[in-house]
Design a protein that fits this description.
The complex is a heterodimer.
Chain A lengths: L3 E6 L8 H10 L9 E9 L2 E9 L9 H4 L5 E3 L5 E3 L9 H5 L6 E2 L13 H6 L8 E2 L5 H9 L13 H5 L5 E5 L6 H8 E4 L11 E7 L4 H5 L1
Parallel strand pairs in A: 1-10
Antiparallel strand pairs in A: 1-8, 2-3, 4-5, 6-7, 9-10
Chain B lengths: L14 H23 L4 H24 L17 H20 L6 H21 L4 H4 L3 H21 L7 H28 L3 H9 L1 H20 L8 H25 L20
The chains are: A alpha+beta, B mainly alpha.
Chain lengths: 224, 282
């Protein structure tokens, strides 16, 4: 089996928002819609304050809360773990948007472009009225994955088959791959590092992992 | 754009979604209570038609909210999983049985009560199914919203029909019980939210309307209903007492649901289980 997943290394992310820009370019999302965004979080009280940059978006959960609530079956989960939306049957009730604990879904009623009426080249190329007034979200660039696989490429390794946000990351903080493959890049990262998933307590089983420290040997071993 | 870790108010469902729960809940409750009261004749038919109109108004509110209204029929597709689909299906049966009863087919009465109750239950499950909103996903929201709908429906029953309907002790007593149950469930739900500490900002909005729910829709309405049910006031006062209690329950219920959907709907926010340890090789 294949389970596509994203890994974000919180130690490496510098909050440059290049992934956000790449996502907007690749998917031509309208103003205010950011399928991939990076939170700039300050935690703690002076002088003990930490700052973290946290990439977020659809977590492509194992048990997506958005799926059972959808009255139209527009939201589906593929065998490879990618959660999709069929824009042609979605009625835009936004039930999925309030069901998602990751605030990953959007609904916009207007077809807007970044600079007014005149679309940029990428917006003109990718304009799709089917996305108006329905739920939209990160797709893990599923089109790139599928066409890449069809051409014998490996998602997460070959850029043509890898989500745009991962390709664009200047710090190598984002990685994408198959966590069911023990030899994959993401499996190696997860094996070598300590990680968590967001809101794990809700039982959604996110397909988005955050690395926060390397695996450390027990203290005794480290001393010797 | 950075949202930080703090939850913020969901902006997807507004007064139109709240309208569905306000009108649909009270309307289906009115249908259930009208059948349960055993009332028959013109007054019963008018109350049933009023209940149907309220359910219809609620569905109209939802229709105004959805992005693609011309595809509204797709709402019936996911009956296997979605409470929204089931609510839509239940509404079809509510209208079929309700119109049948209004047309004089008495055999529709019991089925109407069942499907109206089912409709109400579906509404409550819709709210609980929104797992991104901590104040909504608290399990007690289901019995609370069902009790709200039934109490508000009973309130409308007396508000609209107190002078046409003989104030049977049983019917007014049932009304008092529903008001008391709603009050108790509301307090328990509020306490659970507070104890869990998962939605402090939502709780602030809930507490802002607490006097309306607790004292006007709870204590005052209960006292008025008990005065009528217990025969503690002159009989000629009963219609006015029950109508006033009904108004208090219906208005406070609507206020609560509006707040629940549009004000106490803070999302989960983001949370980091661990902070990054910097300066180490990976």
């Amino acid at each position: 089996m294949t389970r596509w997943a994203m890994v974000a290394d919180l130690r490496r992310c510098v909050g440059c928002q290049t992934c956000t820009a790449a996502c907007k370019h690749a998917n031509a999302t309208p103003p205010g819609v950011q399928w991939r965004r990076v939170l700039d979080i300050e935690l703690g009280v002076y002088p003990d304050v930490q700052r973290a940059f946290v990439p977020v978006g659809c977590q492509h959960c194992d048990e997506p809360p958005c799926l059972p609530v959808c009255p139209t079956t527009a939201t589906k989960k593929r065998a490879d773990g990618i959660v999709t939306i069929d824009y042609d049957i979605c009625i835009g009730c936004a039930y999925c948007a309030v069901a998602c604990p990751y605030q990953a879904r959007y609904k916009t009623d207007l077809s807007e472009f970044a600079y007014g009426d005149k679309p940029m080249d990428n917006e003109a190329l990718r304009f799709d009225d089917a996305k108006r007034s329905v739920a939209t979200k990160c797709t893990f660039c599923v089109g790139r994955i599928d066409s890449g696989l069809a051409n014998g490429l490996t998602p997460g390794v070959d850029p043509e088959a890898t989500p745009a946000c991962v390709n664009s990351c200047i710090a190598d903080a984002l990685a994408f791959g198959d966590i069911d493959d023990p030899e994959s890049n993401v499996s190696a990262l997860l094996a070598k590092n300590q990680h968590f998933r967001m809101h794990e307590e809700l039982g959604t089983g996110p397909g988005f992992f955050y690395l926060w420290d390397r695996n450390r040997p027990p203290i005794d071993e480290e001393k010797s | 754009m950075s949202y930080g870790p703090n939850p913020w108010q969901q902006a997807h469902w507004d007064w139109r979604a709240a309208g569905n729960f306000i009108f649909g809940g009270a309307g289906s409750g009115l249908l259930v209570f009208t059948v349960a009261s055993g009332l028959q004749g013109v007054a019963a038919r008018l109350l049933v038609l009023t209940g149907l109109a309220l359910v219809g108004l609620g569905l109209l509110c939802v229709w105004l909210e959805i992005g693609r209204p011309l595809r509204a029929a797709n709402v019936f597709i996911n009956l296997r999983l979605s409470w929204m689909s089931r609510e839509a299906l239940a509404s079809v049966f509510v209208f079929a049985c309700g119109l049948g009863l209004a047309a004089g087919v008495q055999a529709c009465a019991a089925p109407l009560a069942v499907v109206a109750l089912a409709f109400l239950y579906c509404q409550a499950r819709i709210v609980q199914g929104a797992r991104g909103i901590p104040a909504w996903r608290e399990p007690l929201i289901v019995p609370l919203l069902v009790a709200c709908g039934l109490a508000e429906g009973a309130g409308l029953f007396w508000l609209l029909g107190a002078w046409q309907v003989p104030a049977h002790a049983a019917a007014s007593g049932l009304f008092a019980v529903l008001v008391a149950v709603r009050w108790a469930l509301w307090r328990t739900w509020r306490k659970r939210l507070g104890d869990a500490q998962i939605a402090p900002r939502a709780l602030a909005h809930v507490d802002r309307i607490a006097p309306v729910v607790q004292w006007i829709g709870g204590a005052l309405a209960l006292a008025l209903a008990l005065l009528a049910a217990g025969g503690l006031a002159p009989e000629s006062w009963n219609p006015a007492l029950l109508a006033a209690a009904g108004l208090a329950v219906a208005v406070s219920g609507a206020r609560f649901k509006f707040t629940l959907i549009t004000r106490a709907a803070f999302n989960q926010g983001f949370a980091l289980a661990r902070l990054p340890v910097r300066g180490v090789p990976r």
